[in-house]
Each structure stands twice: as C-alpha cells, then as structure tokens.
Amino acid sequence: MLIGVCGFGSTGSSAVSDYLKEFSENCVFDKLEFHLAYLPDGLADLEHHLMHPHTRILDSIYGIGRFRKLMAQSRYLSRKTGVPLSRIVELADEFIDSLVQVSWLGKPYGEVGFWNRLVGQRIWYHKLRPFLESRLHRTFEGWPMVRLPLSIAPTNFHEAARKFTRSLLKEMGADFSKNIVLDQPFDGNNPMVCFPFFDDPVAIVVDRDPRDNYVFAKTKLLEMQNNRFMPTGNVRDFVKYYRLLRDGQPCQHPHERVLRLRFEEMVYDYDAATRKIRDFLHLPDNPAPKSIFDPALSMANTQVFRRFPQFAEDVSFIERELPEYLFDFSRFPEPDLSGEMFFGKSPKNK
C-alpha cells in the first residue's frame, strides 16, 4: 500500500506522518515532499496532454518536452532522496520511450536559442537546406532538427506511470514489503486525480482550523520566511483562499481510499483519531504510542489565535466567514499554551 499524507499547506499533515513512523509496518519518507505527480508539467499534466489531446501533434510534443525538462531539473528530488539526477532522468526517459508511438526528425517547436533561431532555422532550415536538397536530390537530417515524439492516448499510460514511480521509489530505498508513506504525493483538494500513478494508493488528508492556519502563518511561518504560499497580507484574501481550496472540491466527498482528519483531532482526541488511522490502514495496535508524535507537544500549535491578541479583529472576521471550518475547542479542557510552536515534524522525530 502507498499512503499519501497530504494537506493544504501548514495544516498539520506531519502529525500523521510522525504517527505512522511509530509502526514497523511502514516505510516512511518524510524528508521531502514527493510532488512530481501534480507539479505543473508533471504526471497529471502529461496525462492530460496525451490522454485528452486537443491538437494533432502539439499536445504530445509539448507535454513530453515539458515533462522531460521537469525531470532534468529535479535537483530538489535528487538532493533530498540521494538518487543521482542522471538516474532520475534515465528513468523518466524509459517511461517516455514506452509511451511514444512514433517519432521523426523535424523542426523544433516553441522557444529556441538566438543562434538556433537565426542560423539554424532562418538560414539553414528555410534557405540553405531546401536549396541543397533540390540540387543534390537528397535530404539532410540533423541540426537544427530534433526528434519529435507522438503519443496519442497510449493504452499503457497508467501502467507505465506506476512502473516509473515504483522504480523511483526503489532507487530511494523503499522497502516494498512494508507500507510506503510519502509526504504530499497528492494534492489535498483532489488526491484521487493522482491515484492512477501509484500502486495501491490511499490518502490521508489533514486540515486545520482557519484561525490557527492564518495566525500561525502570520507569526511562526513569518519568522521562517515560509509563509508566502498563502495570502496573509489581509484577512479577506486569506478567507477567499481558504474557501476556494475547499468548497466543492473532490476531497470533501466520501471516498473509500481517502481519510479526512483534523489536526486538532490528533491533538485533543488522540485515541479516537489514531484509531481511525489504524482502522483505515488495517494497522495493528501501536507498539510505541507517542514515541514520535506526542500530542502534548503539538498542542502548542493549536489555538494559536489566542496567543496573539493583536489579530483579534482578523480572527473575528474568520469566525464570521468560515464557521463551518472552525474546530470546536470548547469540548475539551483549555490547554497550556505556553509550549513552543514548531513547524513540520515533531521535535521527537530525529
């Protein structure tokens, strides 16, 4: 089983990854966000271009070209996994080669360098080459021409994509005798769209009270210069952002392979929340509870909005505009809010 732990950006998904790391049945990769499936020009975009083409050849040429470029620039993935970039590119090339149905040498499409555009295309391709071919009665191949790939609705797309991700995980050291746990392999609002690219996928989507999401970004994440993935300049923009990511999105509908959790559940209702996780993943009782995910530590990341009275007016606005997303803290004893806030993995996750 491949378990994707995902959220909406600073919504507490690391709590679930930390908890799953307490089980010997799981092989957890929590040092990187494994987001190549839904990145622009990643697997989902490639699927769109090849499986639902709108042009004769340009969907294929551009979709494949952009995917190859994304893989060639995957230094983050290489650095975080230890897999050489050359090996990542090699696996990507094998994947693409298995999809291409026909290819030929032709004029490159899209942006090309100045020298290629001036000499290669204007002079050689359009003037000198036609002149020589007509005089010598032969064709000239090679520069500035490139090999153009065509792949339209390949029947093996999803099988090949799963082989690609499986091979990449193997290079990362995945132990396939265990559950593979990845951080953010699916996007929180629509995890199901990336399921066809992985073997036996399930998703745990973690969300967080919008008041804490906002104030945490305005304080802790601001200190880390890591709050620019959401609008925090004014509260009205944040409310629009928060609602757009959730209202009517596929993650809101029940799905047998998706478990929705609140970060606050993991902290305040630990036994019930962790039981949901074990039941969903068919895991045994936890042999080492709270050895990595300790709700007592994570409590410092809840009710953050109470710590900063300067944001009281913004918090009141969020409460009026997003009432259905608020967590009912009144059901639980008031916590000690003197603990130190932290971002990402638990301090116990060394």
What's the layout of helices and strands?
Blueprint: E1 2-6, H1 14-20, E2 26-33, H2 43-51, H3 58-72, H4 75-81, H5 85-99, E3 102-106, H6 114-136, E4 146-150, H7 157-171, E5 179-183, E6 201-207, H8 210-218, H9 220-223, H10 235-244, E7 258-262, H11 263-268, H12 270-281, H13 295-298, H14 312-321
Parallel strand pairs: 1-5, 1-6, 2-5, 6-7
Antiparallel strand pairs: 3-4
Helix pairs in contact: 2-3, 3-5, 5-7
Q: How many strand units?
A: 7
Structural class: alpha/beta
Task: Write down the domain tally.
Answer: 3
Largest sheet: 5 strands, parallel
Using brief descriptors, characterize the structure shown.
350 residues; Rossmann fold; 3 domains; 5-stranded parallel beta sheet; two-stranded antiparallel sheet; 14 helices; 42% helix; 11% strand
In short:
With 350 residues, the chain is of the alpha/beta class.
Structure description:
This protein is α/β, with parallel strands linked by helices. It has three domains: 1-25 and 178-350, 3-Layer(aba) Sandwich (Rossmann fold), CATH 3.40.50; 37-107 and 146-171, no CATH class; 114-144, no CATH class. Helices cover 42% and strands 11% of the residues. Strands 2-5-1-6-7 form a five-stranded parallel β-sheet, with helices on both faces. A two-stranded antiparallel ribbon has the order 3-4. Helix 2 (43-51) packs antiparallel against helix 3 (58-72) and helix 3 runs antiparallel to helix 5. The chain is elongated, with a radius of gyration of 25 Å. The two termini are 25 Å apart. The model has no long low-confidence stretch (mean pLDDT 91).
